[in-house]
Amino acid sequence: IAGSQRPVIVRSVSADGPSFGNLLPGDQILAINEETVSDAPRERVIDLVRRCKDTIVLTVLQPHQSPKSAFISAAKKARLRTNPPKVRFSEQVSISDPDSTMLKDDSLLLIPNVLKVFLENGQIKSFTFDSRTTVRDVISSLQDRLSLRYIEHFALVLEAGGLDQNQKLHLLQENQPLTHVVHRTYFQGMKCLFRVCFFPKDPADLLRRDPAAFEYLYIQSRNDVIKERFSMDWKSDITLRLAALHIYITVSSARPNQKISLKYVEKEWGLEPFLPLT
């Protein structure tokens, strides 16, 4: 099954098909029988494949999957479905002499000279730093880890306040040393977030130029609505459409062949992850 991107990407491979063992989900089709198709539409690629009666020569690119990437590739998703990892968690975590206020919330810093940065996809990245490390260094590292092309849309911010308070975001300047940032906020229960702070004029253009950045913007916007970060009065139909899109993506990724129904979603995940509290 081929995707609609350019170059066309192999989405899945049938276990009983001729491509099994030769193609992998995530492969980019660059040429068919020495004809370049890297810029060809999906329909053209499918037509060329169907014309081949006996043999076919496909030239594909299997992107290098960096372990630092925060987004899961199609190939990795397929492997996780067939062989899910088993994880065991400790019943209790003990930290000697912790500050009581730090344990109530997700703290900015618990280990000396290590900064925790919270990503919108739920991941937490840790960075060691010294007196010379700046905010710009962290942003550059995240650009590499997330495979972002247009980093000028992103910034680090400090989030102050919880669900029972007015949440405020404080933009950090790129030349700020991390030591100053941490020392200023260590005992205030703030969180350091990586966000799209400078919105593109045309989100559709961002999708074409930088799909990873567009996906991050979508996840961030969705989280802002669900977590009610800015206390906006959303129209109910917009909220429901966003929730429906979120449910569709979640179910399709976890159970590709599952029929989507509210009863199934409520049983597996509940509705809380998809809708605002109020």
Automatic annotation (TrEMBL):
Q: Which residues form the PDZ domain?
A: 1-64
Which PROSITE patterns does the annotation name?
Answer: FERM_3, PDZ
Residues of the FERM domain:
113-278
Q: Which SUPFAM superfamilies match?
A: PDZ domain-like, Second domain of FERM, Ubiquitin-like
**What is the superkingdom listed in this entry's lineage?**
Eukaryota
Concerning PANTHER family, the annotation shows: FERM AND PDZ DOMAIN-CONTAINING PROTEIN 3, FERM AND PDZ DOMAIN-CONTAINING PROTEIN FAMILY MEMBER
The protein's name in its UniProt record: FERM and PDZ domain containing 3
State the encoding gene. Answer: FRMPD3
